[in-house]
Design goal:
Blueprint: H1 2-6, H2 11-27, E1 34-40, E2 46-49, H3 67-79, E3 83-86, H4 98-104, H5 106-117, E4 121-124, H6 131-134, H7 136-147, E5 153-154, E6 156-162, E7 167-173, H8 186-203, H9 214-228, E8 234-238, E9 245-246, E10 249-250, H10 251-264, H11 268-284, E11 299-301, E12 312-318, E13 321-330, E14 333-343, H12 344-350
Parallel strand pairs: 1-6, 2-3, 3-4, 4-5, 7-8, 8-11
Antiparallel strand pairs: 2-12, 6-7, 9-10, 12-13, 13-14
Amino acid sequence: MANRFSSAPKQENVDASLSKLYAQSVDEPGKKNGSMFTIENGKQSIIIFSDQHKGARNGSDDFAFAEKNYLTALDYYNDKNFYLINLGDNEELWENTIFQVIKYNQNTFDKEKLFIDRNAYCKIIGNHDLFWKNDPMVAQGFIKKIYGKSIKIFESIVIRVQLSSSYLDIFCTHGHQGDSQSDGNAFSKWFVSYIWGPLQMLLEINTNSPSTNDESKTRHNQMMYEWASKQPDTLLITGHTHQPVFKSLTHLERLYLQLEEAQQNNDKEAIKKIEAEIPRRRREYDFVNNSFRNLNPSYFNSGCCCFEDGTITGIEIAEGFIRLIKWSYVNNIPSRIVAEEASLEQMAELIK
């Protein structure tokens, strides 16, 4: 029952919802639910984070241990004049009141405000922070309290990157689109926010999103991929599952590809290293798409900012590249690590 209430996407609903949001972002940016801006390749740097689930620093606050990494990352990106996109579920408003979240997260809000002051911030709504959409007038009152000024909150944003001979649209949204329980009619959204969320907290049900359910992760990734793979000149970036995806591949699927390459090259050292890594990744997530060798590399997932070990992941767009990055504690010091990267010019050719 928990799985049914918390995540019930259908492909036709996913397709319709994503297509509508994309069209609104491109055709009427800023007027409805979507925003858009155009950049020259390599001229503007962007960092995309999602799923902080900022809580009340209690036993159920998944963000608490990751906060130091997040704050250090924001300092790094602000110093380098990055544009920040928070891709949804930034506040955990199913388990906490807005008053609790404000009380215990002022440090992170202050760091985010530095981007707002530079006009370099976009806030996207997720299913755990639908509060910001359900009552916009009340929400703006709290936004002013948090950031000192009003900011518009969107459901999606399109970054149009001007390349040497064409353009590439990078379409960013949280990823709960098409889920009838959190992206459906007004009653569905009200029910999730005011009935199901509090009931989940009361009964300590922790299967409220794909982040805790492999079956839901698989369904989510597949549905998002199916939409993205059919869009010309477009990459899709979502969050929601808490599972990083780069060029349509999970880490486990990429390890299998790397293992095949190492075996073909008879690279014994690489084979040994990859074979040691695979069991650990399989414990995290065991599903492998049967077609992973031939996927269109058009779907990405930013992961989350609340891994158990305090690691946070995100997507960077900078210097003509798209990168999957993670900030992890190395000797208890937050450290930036590039996990994957690809040229945007190359991506445009690959998805034609």
